[in-house]
Amino acid sequence: MTTEERLTSKLAEMGLTMPAAAAPKGLYRPVVIAGNLAYTSGHLPVTPDGQLITGRVGDDLDVERGQQAAALAGLGILATLKAELGSLDRVVRLVKLLGLVNCTPDFTQQPAVINGVSQLMADVFGPDAGIGARSAVGVTALPLGVPVEVEAVFEIAV
After folding, report:
1. What is the rounded distance in angstroms from the CA atom of residue 64 to the CA atom of residue 78?
2. Which residues contact 76 (CB under 8 A, 6 or more apart)?
3. What is the value of pTM for the model shown?
4. Are strands 31-34 and 148-156 parallel, antiparallel or unpaired?
5. How many CA atoms lie within 13 A of 122 on its CB side?
6. What pLDDT sits at residue 32?
7. What is the mean pLDDT of residues 140-158?
8. Exposure winner among 3, 25, 96, 110, fewest CB in 10 A?
9. Mean pLDDT over each residue of the chain, to the nearest integer
10. pLDDT in tens, 19-70
11. Phi, psi (5° rounding) for residue 46?
12. Of 122, 131, 84, whose CA–CA distance to 76 is shortest?
């Protein structure tokens, strides 16, 4: 099964469709390719119909809702990669994820929240290529009041 086929299957299971790649909202590039690495800018949780998910984990949102938001941010990353590369089949492996979680000061389950995007990547790219290094960090605010922002580094076939 190709990466594209795994993605289609996972999206059907989640009841989602692939969103269009988001246009930059500032002075940055959504993805930069350097050699055989693709670096994505931070992606926010946006539903396929364009709705931005907002809230703070530990206050407005629980861990499960935070995981869903993280998965949506990951879906945005996949849309950006597909637009840039032409096909996700060019992805060799996920190298690194950085997940920022907008949370209350006493919230300590940031890794559980970022598991939402980690699971999506493992499902799409497989257990070997879809699990990379990762950091999950709690912060007091994120752009537009979103609960998560995720960026990633991928090894790609050139």
Report:
1. 21
2. 19, 21, 22, 43, 44, 45, 46
3. 0.95
4. unpaired
5. 11
6. 98
7. 97
8. 25
9. 94
10. 889 889 899 999 999 999 999 999 999 998 889 999 999 999 999 999 999 9
11. -125, 130
12. 84
Q: Give the per-residue pLDDT at 104.
A: 98
Tally of helices (H runs) and strands (E runs) in the chain: 3, 5
The answer to whether the CB of 52 falls within 8 A of the CB of 149 is no
Q: Which helix (H) or strand (E) holds 82?
A: helix 63-85
Answer yes or no: is pLDDT of 16 > 80: no
Q: Where are the domains of the chain?
A: 3-15+31-156
Structure-token match 């007091």, residue found: 140
CATH fold for domain 3-15+31-156? 60s Ribosomal Protein L30; Chain: A; (3.30.1330)
In the chain, the amino acid numbered 135 is S
